[in-house]
Amino acid sequence: MSIFSNIICNRYEQKAIDVRVSNLQRRITQLGDKIVTSNFIFDEDNQTIRTELQLMAEQYDGRLVIVNSNYKVRSDTYKIEPAKSGSPETGNVYNISEEVISALAGTPSSNVVGDMVQLAYPIQTAASTDSTAANKNTMKDNQGKSNIVGAILLTASIRDVESTVNAMEEKTFLIIMLVILLVCLFSAWYSNVLVKPFKRVSQSIDHISEGSFEERITIDGYTEVINMAESVNKMINRVEQLESSRQEFVSNVSHELKTPITSIKVLADSLLAQEGAPAELYREFMSDITEEIERENKIINDLLSLVKLDKTSGEMNITSVNINELLELILKRLRPIASTRNIELIFESFRPVIAEVDEVKLTLAISNLIENAIKYNFDDGWVRISLNADHKFFYVKVSDSGVGIPEDVQDHIFERFYRVDKARSRETGGTGLGLSITRNAILMHRGAIKVYSKEKEGTTFTVRVPLNYIA
Ligand code: ADP
């Protein structure tokens, strides 16, 4: 606004001065004509012209000087010099300033100096029709040069233009100040309006951090705040989920760990209650107790594996591993278990695969899948393991001819301690942690795992892992 008003004021000032100068030029031209007609240059006693000169000087708050062609001042409204000879008020004063010289040479000039404008204009006779004797003399003096008989020098004040511009500047300054004040007030009010929803969001977040997960943020505001509130609500949902799964995990762990101990206690108590029990009974109960201890041990080991896998990927020990060899090794280890139930283990490899993986974690993940495929299979069934790769990933597929997983629980099988058939799982020594361990290990490799299954027909797990580890 300041720049704009400056430009406008400057333009206005320039324009007003131009108009004033052109007005003055017109007045001077008219005055020149009158001077010529009244022959004032040679007869400065003409009172009409004198009065007009005086009035004009007063009107413009300036000074009018008439100079003849010999640079002699014929009339000066300032009457600086006392009258000596010639003109009653100018005596023998000469004005040989630059402006007068160029005006007498026929070139008018106008200059703005401070708050004054200075015009120098030639006084020209109209052709040579004028036949006064004096005029003839002058014509002779200026032989053939021109019909310029003198010059008018006008210095006029343009203070009024300046004061108008100053008034304009003052007004625009006031307007600018007013606008700034309004903008400040508006900004203060509007920033308050903008910040208000955020205050409410942070209040809600404070409540939630104090532990009340029931609260959700409901805000009517502008889109950004609504989006933010939605994101925060999503985050709260996630935190709530995590919290409940944590609580569930803790209670599951205690329950799972307590079950074998309870069995051990029951077995031991019943032995103690029987006085003089036969050695065979002791042996039988002791072997049951050992089984329970083994189970407790397995749960603890699986839990430890899971806890390790829950940590950050900084724990990864990445090396270049031949996946074909890794799978062959797992199968070699599991073949004896499969053969006890006459389950056929088939390995199909479409190409040799070398990938950057954590060998221990990947072995654990794939072993769990193949173990499950054997565990949840029918006698004389089959398990097919296939390995393939493209330029980015390698794919391991573990299919079996087993019992399958009901469709409605397929989403849950990767949860910790989740077992479809608790009795069967327990029978086979399952802890419900195997698939969680597998999924965590695959996710740590930035891979993915999917399950396709049909009850009583079989199950297929597909695993996709990047060939190069992405940290
Ligand atoms: P578990 O120690 O009980 O085997 P997992 O986490 O490995 O626990 O598996 C979770 C559940 O998913 C198992 O209890 C089982 O019911 C089901 N499951 C896993 N793999 C298979 C499979 N190949 N065929 C059928 N059911 C399976």
Rounded to the nearest angstrom, the distance between the terminal CA atoms is 55 Å
- Order of SSEs: HHEEHEEHEHHHEHEEHEEHHEE
Tally the beta strands.
12
Largest sheet: 5 strands, antiparallel
Using the alpha-carbon principal axes, give the shape. rod-shaped
Kindly report the spatial arrangement of strands forming the biggest sheet: 2-1-5-4-3
Q: Segments where pLDDT lies below 50 for 5+ residues?
A: 81-87, 128-145
Bound compounds, each kind once, are:
adenosine-5'-diphosphate
Structural class, please? alpha+beta
| Portion in helices | 40-55%
Task: Give a verbal description of the structure.
There is one protein chain. By secondary structure, the chain is an alpha+beta fold. It contains 11 helices and 12 strands. The strands form 3 sheets. It has a 5-stranded antiparallel β-sheet. A hairpin with a 3-residue loop joins β9 and β10. α1 runs antiparallel to α5. About 5% of the residues have low confidence.
Give short descriptive properties of this protein:
single chain; 471 residues; alpha+beta; five-stranded antiparallel beta sheet; binds adenosine-5'-diphosphate
Indicate the topology.
Layout: H1 2-38, H2 47-59, E1 63-68, E2 73-76, H3 98-104, E3 109-113, E4 116-124, H4 133-141, E5 148-157, H5 159-209, H6 223-273, H7 279-310, E6 318-322, H8 323-340, E7 344-349, E8 354-358, H9 359-375, E9 382-389, E10 393-400, H10 422-427, H11 434-444, E11 448-454, E12 458-466
Parallel strand pairs: 7-9
Antiparallel strand pairs: 1-2, 1-5, 3-4, 4-5, 6-8, 9-10, 10-12, 11-12
Helix pairs in contact: 1-5, 5-6, 6-7, 7-11, 8-9, 9-11
Bound molecules: adenosine-5'-diphosphate.
Residues 368, 372-373, 376, 400, 402-405, 413, 418-421, 425, 430-436, 459 line the site of adenosine-5'-diphosphate.
